[in-house]
Amino acid sequence: MTLLSCFIRRHFYLLALMLCLSPLAHAGAYEDFFNAIKTDNVESMTSLLNRGLDPNLIEEERGETGLMLALREGSTKIFKLLLNQPNIDLEVKARNGDNVLMIAAFKGNQGAVETLLNKGAAVNRSGWTALHYAAAIGNNEIAQMLMKKGADINAESPNKTTPMMMAARGGHILTVKLLLDGGADATLRNEAGLTAIDFANQFGFKDIAEGLTYRLKKAGKM
User: In 39-153, which residue ranges form alpha helices assigned H by DSSP?
Assistant: First the structure.
């Protein structure tokens, strides 16, 4: 066997070995990525990112990105680290359609919502929105942040449910007032034919139903 053929064969084996090990190394890095998020381990995450790992990796259970998982886990240091990556994608949708801004709103994380908005996260989108979620939990501070950024106050979910309907359903009278004062239309109906007043009555929040009825009659809409 010539020296050249030995050299070629040796490098062929090395290449084959690298190809075999690459998927294993990637699988390990994938697990390390999400473990670092769950433990808020910035040192481990920084090492992974410096090795070229994509900060937009998606976990299997819910199809969420690392940013989304960091919010759910309360891993504030990792959230900040990932958010500041130059190629981070804020508009990725999880399997259920949620994005990172929506999860931040649902969790009532005002700091995260503000930071995401300053980073340029889109406020409006088709279907459920961050404002729906803020209204659902009655968080007026987040709702106001979103409204100041131009959130569609009458945004319709896939079944035409509006943020005001969500607020009325949850019994959040101050959020209902905030939305109403901001121009929300209390006469809108979802696909089931229900208005915000209907939701309030259905879930036993008569004060909201009476307040909305009064406002609509005053405006000549009832």
Answer: 42-50, 66-73, 76-83, 100-106, 110-118, 130-137, 140-148
> Under a CB-based contact definition with an 8 Å cutoff, are residues 139 and 178 in contact?
no
Instruction: Read off φ and ψ for residue 58, nearest 5 degrees.
Output: -115, 130
Cα–Cα distance for residue pair 178/168, rounded to 1 Å? 12
What are the structure tokens assigned to 164, written together?
């005001």
Which residues sit opposite 65 in a β-bridge? Answer: 58
Q: Which residue is it, tokens 């696909």?
A: 191
pLDDT above 70 as % of the chain: 88
Q: SS3 breakdown of the chain: % helix, strand, coil, rounded to 5?
A: 60, 0, 40
Domains of the chain and CATH, by start: 1-89 (1.25.40.20)
Per-residue pLDDT reduced to its tens digit, 146-179:
999 999 999 999 999 999 999 999 999 999 999 9
Alpha-carbon distance values, 140 to 87, 117, 137, 146 (Å) = 31, 16, 9, 10
Sequence length of the chain is: 222
Cα 51 to Cα 25, 118, 125, 206: the distances in Å are: 12, 28, 34, 58
Rounded distance between C-alpha atoms, residue 131 and residue 142, angstroms = 8
